Amino acid sequence: AAKRGGRERVCLFDAAMDESQRFRQIIETGLRHAIAGDELALHYQPIVERNDLRTVGFEALLRWNSPDHGPISPAVFIPIAEESGLIDDLGEWVLNRALNDCRDWPGLFVSINFSPRQFKRANFVEWLDAHVAQAQVTPGNVQIEITETAIFEDTEWAADVLRELHSKGYRIALDDFGTGYSSLFNIKNFSLNCLKIDKSFIEGLGHDKHSAAIVSSIVHLARALGLNIVAEGVETDEQCQMLRLTGCSHMQGFLFGKPAAAAQAAAAHADSLPGTNDGTSRAGVIG
Ligand code: C2E
Ligand code: MG
Ligand code: MG
Ligand code: MG
Predict the structure, then answer these.
(1) How far, in Å, is the centroid of ligand 4 from the Cα of 231?
(2) pLDDT per residue as tens digits for the range 35-61
(3) Which of 1, 29, 89, 171 has the largest CB neighbor count within 10 A?
(4) What residue's CA is closest to ligand 1, atom 32?
């Protein structure tokens, strides 16, 4: 019986493997169509600064509406694109679209996500530069979002690439900070402008002592290193208050704006231009 049980387990395991393979295959095939067709969109979510909650930039977030399966989350398809190599074509689409769209909000930056594989390509800087130049966008208006995984696997090489990007004027943000191999001691060796604190820590603010302690120590250490901080996933007034008191320089989350199409994002930007804000719409947010 033991032997039979063992065999069954193997069979179940194989079946699960098959299913996940099949799922991957479906996503991969669908993505190929999506890139060629009209199924992708970039949405933009405001990043605000702490004092007057004015928008200083937008994060570009990829959306895929599959005619066969409906909307699919980037958290699902990006890792598959990354493994299959489709991320190269996808990333090219994202970069071109983001550079084109950001010309509608001069003076604000666009923050673009790059997966480890994209960042690690041999000619990343040249590739980026060529597109930025062609779109006639200033590097200072472009923020590169990378994760810890992208830089801590080959730190010397990553440090060189980041230094080069920095010297060309790009902003560099370390995304999802706190979820990977975070080491604030390593952080000081990289040319970074900003740390984005993962929303899992912001969620805990207000009801979980540990989250509050972690957020406040990240904020203080990052400040000491001269870095900006963006708190991700800010949804409530209470979280916003606590972050301001901690000294967090920037925030992003549904409280300030959900990811939206470029035209809507541009309209929201008009609201937050100096002098055009009557002080009523946003003051309500912080009570
Ligand atoms: P991320 O870069 O950490 O992006 C932040 C995620 O948090 C986004 O999820 C955003 O919609 C969500 N979010 C923002 N504010 C709130 C909030 O107040 N509450 C909650 N619950 N969620 C909030 P999204 O758009 O589903 O993207 C998931 C991830 O997919 C991104 O995480 C990023 O890692 C990846 N991704 C998205 N677009 C791209 C892209 O163009 N290229 C690459 N390489 N990765 C991308
Ligand atoms: Mg991001
Ligand atoms: Mg993030
Ligand atoms: Mg995140």
Answers:
(1) 10
(2) 999 899 999 999 999 999 999 999 999
(3) 171
(4) 75
